[in-house]
Design a protein that fits this description.
Length: 601
C-alpha cells in the first residue's frame, strides 16, 4: 500500500483570487492605506524588516543565481567574439548557472507561497492594498513592515516571486500578454493582497521596448527564430528545451537564429536579455520532421498490483504483462518466489520493489537483492528448464520514495535528510555491485525525486560515480505538476554529468476517481473526477509524457490495479486509484483506456 507524502499543489498566486484590473487614479495610495486598516499601527515609527529566514535566504540565493547567470552569458558572448568557436568550459558554466537559477527561482516561489497565510490564519497582520499605475505596482504599507513579497504569474511559466524593501516596483514587461501580480508582507503567515493585472502592449521595435529588462517577443518563421531588439541590450540568451533532455542555454548577439534541427521532436524556445533582473519571453515551439531512423518511443507499460487472489484475476482482466510488486528488502529469494511464480503462470513479468519504509537498509540487506537477481533474472536458477524464461525480471527498484521526507519526518536540506541521501547512495552502490557479481544482468532503479537538488547533491557527494550503478531514474509524477517533476530529474542528473542514455522510469502514476463523487484530494486535478474524465486525463498525460521524455521514457506503471475500498465508502484519495473497482468490476471508460494502454506492449 502506498503512503502519500503531504503534497502541496503550487498555487498561481496566493489563494487564487479573482483577477482585479486596476488603472492609475482608481485608488490612491493614501486611500489604500486607510482601506487596508492599521494592522500593527500602534507601533508607529520607522519600518522594520521581519521576513522569515527561509524567505531571506531564498531571495538572496535567487539574486546571486541571477547575477551569475547573466555574468556567465556575457563571458560566453565575449569568448565567442574573440574565438568564434570553442569556449567549451564557459559554455558548461552557463548551463550550470542556468540550472542553478531555475532551482533558486523555484525555491523562492515555493517558500514565498508556503510561508503565506490568509485572512483566517493570519489575523495579526493585514494584506496590502495593491493598485496599478501605468506599468508600476504600488501598495499600502502594512504596519511597520519594511519587506514585501511580490509574486507574478506569466502565462506558460512557473509562478515567480521577489522580495523588495519598497512599496512600489516596476516589473519587467512581458510584451503582448497579461501578467497577474499579488503582494504580501514578508512575514510568516501574512496574507496576499487581491490580485491585479497588467496587460502589456506588443513590442515590435526598439522604441516600444524601452526597458532593458523587458522580455523579447519571440516569433517563428519556418525553422528560424526572430525577436524584437530590446533597447540597450546587446546580448540575448536562448533557452532550448528538447523533450527528454535538460534545458540548454546559448547566447546570441543579434535578434535572429536558426537552431539545429532535432528530427522527430517538438522543441520549445524562449529568449531573454543578458541583463540583471530581465525576464524570459513567452515560449514558442518548432516541430521538426522525423527522419527514417526516428521512431516514436513506447515505454514498457504495466501496473502496480498485489498478491491477493483478486489482484491476479484483475491483472489478467486488464491485460497487463508487467506488474510492480513490493517486497521487504530483507526477504529471501525463496520468500518472494510464490508471487513471481503465480504471475509467471499468467504470463506476467514482475518488477520487484525492495522496500525499507522509514529506515535505511543495512549493507547486508542491500546486498540481499543480489539473491533475487540470481534466482529470477535472465538465466536465473528459477527459470532453469522452464518454457517461460522470457518473463525473467529485468530490474529491481531500490526503495520507495526514499527521497521524500514524509516517511522520516524531515525536509530537504536538513542534516538527517542529507545523511539519508548519502547512506542511500552507499547502499545502492553495494546492492548494484552485489548484483553484478552474480553475473546476471538485472538493473537497479534509483530514487532521486527532490526539486531542491539537495538529495542529488548528497548522493553524488557520497558516491561521485553514482550514475555508473543506475539503470533508471525513478519518478512518481502525480497530479498537475508532473512536467516539473520530470524536468527536475532531467536537469539535476545532467548537472551531475549523468549520461542522457539512462531512462526515466515512472513506476507510479495515477488519478483517483469514484465516478464523479468528490474526494478530499486529487493533487491539482479535479477532486470530483468521473471515469470518463479519468480516461481522457490518462490518454492526454501519457502522450504528453512521451513527448517530454522521448527516447528516455523507460517504464510507465499505473497505480494501481484496483480500488482499495468499495465505491462510496470513503473520501480518501488513496482508496480510488484503481483501474478497476475494489472487487474487480470495470470503471467504465477509464478501465477501457487502461486496457488499451497496457495492450500497447
Amino acid at each position: 500500500m502506498r503512503i502519500y507524502p503531504a503534497r502541496i499543489a503550487r498555487r498561481r498566486i496566493g489563494q487564487r483570487l479573482a483577477v482585479v484590473c486596476l488603472t492609475a487614479g482608481m485608488v490612491s495610495i493614501a486611500a489604500a492605506t486607510e482601506a487596508a486598516g492599521n494592522a500593527g499601527a500602534s507601533t508607529a515609527g520607522a519600518s522594520f524588516h521581519v521576513s522569515p529566514g527561509s524567505l531571506r535566504s531564498a531571495s538572496k540565493h535567487a539574486r546571486a543565481a541571477e547575477r551569475s547567470f547573466v555574468s556567465d552569458a556575457k563571458t560566453l558572448r565575449k569568448c565567442l567574439g574573440a574565438h568564434s568557436a570553442g569556449c567549451t568550459s564557459v559554455r558548461g558554466k552557463l548551463q550550470k548557472a542556468g540550472r542553478h537559477l531555475q532551482a533558486a527561482e523555484r525555491r523562492l516561489g515555493h517558500v514565498a507561497h508556503t510561508t503565506a497565510g490568509n485572512a483566517t490564519t493570519a489575523s495579526h497582520i493585514g494584506a496590502p492594498t495593491l493598485i496599478v499605475s501605468g506599468q508600476q505596482l504600488q501598495w499600502s504599507r502594512v504596519g511597520r513592515v519594511g519587506d514585501y513579497v511580490v509574486a507574478r504569474d506569466v502565462p506558460g511559466q512557473s509562478p515567480q516571486a521577489e522580495v523588495v524593501s519598497t512599496t512600489s516596483v516596476t516589473p519587467p514587461p512581458v510584451p503582448g500578454t497579461t501578467v497577474i501580480y499579488a503582494v504580501r508582507a514578508a512575514v510568516n503567515g501574512a496574507p496576499w493582497s487581491a490580485e491585479v493585472s497588467i496587460t502589456y502592449p506588443a513590442a515590435t521595435s526598439v522604441t516600444e521596448a524601452t526597458q532593458r529588462q523587458a522580455a523579447p517577443t519571440l516569433t517563428v518563421s519556418g525553422d528560424t527564430l526572430d525577436w524584437n531588439a530590446v533597447a540597450g541590450a546587446s546580448t540575448y540568451v536562448l533557452a532550448t528545451k528538447v523533450p527528454g533532455e535538460a534545458v540548454q542555454y546559448s547566447v546570441v548577439a543579434g535578434t535572429t537564429v536558426t537552431p539545429p534541427a532535432v528530427p522527430g521532436k517538438t522543441v520549445s524556445y524562449s529568449v531573454r536579455t543578458a541583463v540583471d533582473g530581465s525576464t524570459w519571453g513567452l515560449e514558442v515551439s518548432i516541430t521538426y520532421a522525423a527522419t527514417e531512423s526516428t521512431t516514436a518511443n513506447m515505454p514498457q507499460t504495466g501496473i502496480n498490483s498485489g498478491v491477493e487472489p483478486t489482484d491476479f484475476s484483475s491483472t489478467s482482466l486488464l491485460g497487463a504483462k508487467l506488474v510492480r510488486l513490493a517486497f521487504p528488502i530483507e526477504d529471501s529469494a525463496a520468500q518472494i518466489q510464490p508471487a513471481i511464480e503465480k504471475y509467471a503462470a499468467i504470463g506476467v513479468r514482475v518488477l520487484p520493489l525492495a522496500t525499507f519504509t522509514g529506515r535505511m537498509p543495512s549493507a547486508a540487506e542491500a546486498q540481499n537483492v543480489a539473491g533475487w537477481a540470481a534466482a529470477y533474472g535472465p538465466g536465473g536458477t528459477f527459470w532453469a528448464g522452464r518454457s517461460d524464461a522470457s518473463l525473467a525480471i529485468q530490474s529491481i527498484e531500490f526503495g520507495n520514495e526514499t527521497s521524500y521526507g514524509y516517511q522520516y519526518g524531515d525536509n530537504a536540506g536538513e542534516p538527517s535528510y542529507m545523511a539519508r541521501a548519502q547512506t542511500y547512495a552507499i547502499r545502492f552502490k553495494e546492492a548494484a555491485e552485489a548484483i553484478s557479481s552474480t553475473g546476471v544482468t538485472v538493473g537497479l532503479l534509483a530514487q532521486v525525486e527532490d526539486w531542491t537538488g539537495n538529495w542529488m547533491n548528497a548522493v553524488y557527494a557520497a558516491v561521485p560515480n553514482f550514475s555508473d550503478y543506475v539503470a533508471g531514474w525513478v519518478s512518481h509524477p502525480y497530479g498537475s505538476e508532473w512536467h516539473t517533476k520530470l524536468q527536475d530529474i532531467l536537469n539535476e542528473t545532467a548537472a551531475h554529468g549523468a549520461p542522457s542514455t539512462i531512462p526515466i522510469d515512472i513506476t507510479e502514476w495515477g488519478v483517483t476517481t469514484d465516478n464523479g463523487r468528490c474526494l478530499t484530494e486529487n493533487y491539482g486535478l479535479n477532486k470530483c473526477m468521473t471515469y470518463g474524465e479519468a480516461a481522457a486525463t490518462l490518454h492526454t498525460t501519457f502522450n504528453e509524457m512521451r513527448q517530454t521524455l522521448g527516447s528516455r521514457f523507460g517504464m510507465f506503471m499505473l497505480y494501481q490495479v484496483r480500488d482499495q475500498q468499495v465505491t462510496g465508502t470513503s473520501t480518501e484519495p488513496e482508496a480510488y486509484f484503481g483501474a478497476l473497482q475494489h472487487q474487480g468490476q470495470a470503471k467504465g471508460a477509464f478501465t477501457t483506456q487502461v486496457q488499451e494502454l497496457l495492450a500497447s506492449n
